[in-house]
Every structure is written in C-alpha cells, then in structure tokens.
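Before we proceed, please read the two lines closing this message. Report back on whether the structure tokens fit the sequence:
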Amino acid sequence: MSWACRSLPTCPDVKSSWPELVGKKGNEAKAVISRERPDITRAILVPQVAVITDDYCCNRVRILVNCNAGDCGEATGTAVPMIG
C-alpha cells in the first residue's frame, strides 16, 4: 500500500503537535506519535538542515532531528513535531 497525503479540509480536530517530544530521540518520538495518533500514516525523521516542501498533509508528521543524513533514529529532536 502506498502512502497518500490527506489534505485540508478533511483534517480531524485532534492533537496535532507534540511539544513534549523536543529533545527526545527520533525513534522514541516516532513511537509516541504512532501510539497517540494511529491515523498518522507517515511520521518521518528529517535532518534539521533539510529543505522541505510547504505542502500540508493531515496524516504526516515531520520530526526534525539534529543529524545530517542517514539513520537519524538516535538523533535528538530539535523542533516541535506537528502535523503538516
């Protein structure tokens, strides 16, 4: 099954950001988001230096972490993960 973006206006009115995850490891943050919001089908670890698009998806969370590339699961979150 491929991933598909669900965009506005169909976003549910539920928790959409996780400020408590700043400073946590990327894999830990991903697990918490998946547990709290199983409808999020794409929680991705993104190096903080990456260029990202400004499109909005209701079922995606970008977790910015302090790594440059590769496996960023053990890197620390640097910003509030949020739907988008």
Summary: The mean pLDDT is 88. Helices lie at 26-36. Residues 24 and 76 are 5 Å apart (CA to CA). The chain has one helix and three strands.
